[in-house]
Design a protein that fits this description.
The chain is an alpha/beta fold and 357 residues long. β2, α2 and β3 form a beta-alpha-beta unit. The chain starts with a strand and ends with a helix.
Length: 357
């Protein structure tokens, strides 16, 4: 495999599956965690390595190391591997997805932004989703029946249990306190705002086609997806929260042995469900219009990434993130007609958000 984002949580889990089933690792692409990258190099002996920053090259223990986005694209092109695991974060994962598809490779996709910003230009027939929610929907839909609605679940994020009036005072440190697990900075902030779930709904729309999609909060993160069928029945996908299950299916096409411990309902005791409301998660108000106009996802993603940067820099409040995303969504109404339009809109929206007073 070509593994993009090897030192993140998904990358680490992908390598755990590679080790367990003796899968070849052709290329490793990593960010700033050079210590962990060097450990991975020693264990898996990839042919080539790519890092984010050129200044880190001298610290990587490998004879074939390059840096930057163009190096990632070149590594995908020259590799003889026909399988890419894209676990990069944000818009940075979009061009590698396009390059992999152009090269005829299959993709295990955790970079939801690839579909959020450019789903209309991505061949989803060669994409296998490894987000637990989309894997759950795929898993449930292996015996097709007429579907009424597809549902995914959310943890609720850092402010799930906060008094709503207190959220306006939330700091960066507060936003990074996820109630269920430890994740990277951006996805944890997106979880707190519910932007991550909007992106996942949009990703599901591109993966599974037009239809009705929605999300609810399930506080223990045991149920990942549900499907309502037209006959009135509902099925749910339950699994302990561990990315190795969807990754195993993506890499091998099936799994004939136990990847995770089964869910013990007696130990869980009870499950709690809550509605996602725009009072607690203001950005939730745009989800229906966005799902009706999915090509505008590039605007929402660019605005969100730019606003998060401002929040991390201490220049805006947490609630300002959602406010700026909504503002950009209302201001930029055009839909991209080609890849160049996506790249243009991405830059325009980011500059616009940073220029707001």
């Amino acid at each position: 495999m070509i593994l993009l984002g090897s030192t993140g949580s998904i990358g680490v889990n992908a390598l755990a599956i590679a080790e367990r089933f003796h899968l070849n690792v052709d290329t490793l692409v990593a960010g700033r965690n050079i210590t962990l990258l060097n450990q991975q190099i020693q264990q898996f002996s990839p042919k080539r390595v790519v890092v984010l920053n050129p200044e880190d090259i001298v610290h990587v223990n490998h004879p074939n190391v390059h840096a930057g986005e163009e190096a990632i694209l070149e590594a995908i092109e020259v590799s003889t591997s026909d399988f890419v695991v894209n676990a990069l974060v944000g818009f940075a994962g979009f061009r590698p997805t396009l390059k992999a598809l152009d090269c005829g490779k299959r993709i295990a996709l955790a970079n939801k932004e690839s579909l959020v910003v450019g789903g209309a230009f991505v061949d989803t027939s060669r994409i296998i989703p490894i987000d637990s929610e989309h894997f759950g929907l795929w898993y449930l839909n292996q015996t097709p029946r007429p579907i009424s609605r597809m549902l995914i679940t959310a943890s609720g994020g850092a402010f799930r249990d906060w008094p709503i009036e207190k959220i306006q005072e939330a700091t960066l440190k507060d936003a990074l306190k996820h109630p269920n697990w430890s994740m990277g900075q951006k996805i944890t902030i997106d979880s707190a705002s519910m932007m991550n779930k909007i992106f996942e709904l949009l990703e599901a729309r591109w993966l599974f086609g037009a239809g009705e999609y929605d999300a609810i909060i399930e506080t223990k993160s045991i149920i990942h997806a549900l499907i309502d069928y037209q006959d009135g029945s509902t099925t749910a996908h339950l699994a302990n929260a561990n990315m190795q299950l969807p990754i195993a299916y993506a890499l091998m096409g099936k799994s004939d042995e136990k990847i995770l411990p089964s869910v013990n309902l007696l130990e869980i005791g009870s499950l709690e469900f809550r509605e996602i409301t725009s009072a607690r998660y203001p950005v939730w108000e745009i989800r229906k219009e966005l799902l009706l106009n999915p090509a505008r996802g590039v605007v929402v993603n660019a605005a969100n990434e730019a606003a998060i940067e401002l929040f991390v820099e201490g220049k805006i409040t947490f609630l300002d993130i959602s406010a700026r995303v909504i503002h950009a969504f209302e201001h930029f109404e055009q839909e991209p007609k080609c890849i160049e339009d996506i790249l243009y809109l991405n830059n325009e929206v980011r500059q616009y958000i940073r220029g707001l007073s």
